[in-house]
Amino acid sequence: MRRLSFALLLLLPWTSGLAAERTWYYLTTGNGHGFQVFDRRAGKITQFLEHPYRFVAPPDERRDGGIGRRDLAHDAYFGVSVDG
Given its phi and psi angles, is residue 66 left (phi above 0), alpha (psi -120 to 50 degrees) or beta? Predict the structure, then answer.
């Protein structure tokens, strides 16, 4: 028990600086009807997907690609356009 507590005391100064910096800025969420990716740095939803998978159907027998999912947030703009 003493060895374990001594080892933890030695590691404590090394691990204290690791939690200070955020390393992942994306939050993914979905409710079964749509799937979103929120970018914390940009402060907005960057992707609004109709399907959680990258491809919704295979193109051929080899299944090495497919018909890609649509990004519904690509052309969505919820602001007001003034003068064109």
Answer: left
Task: Please calculate the CA angle 64-36-70 and round it to the nearest 5 degrees.
Answer: 45
| Structure token digits, residue 43 | 């402060």
Rg (CA), the chain: 22
What's the CA gap between 71 and 62, in Å, rounded? 25
pLDDT in tens, the chain (84 residues): 777 676 666 666 655 555 556 778 999 888 888 888 899 998 888 888 887 777 778 777 776 778 888 888 776 666 676 776
3-state secondary structure the chain: CHHHHHHHHHHHHHHCCHHHCCCCCEEEEECCCCEEEEECCCCEEEEEECCCCCEEECCCCCCCCCEECCECCCCCCCCCCCCC
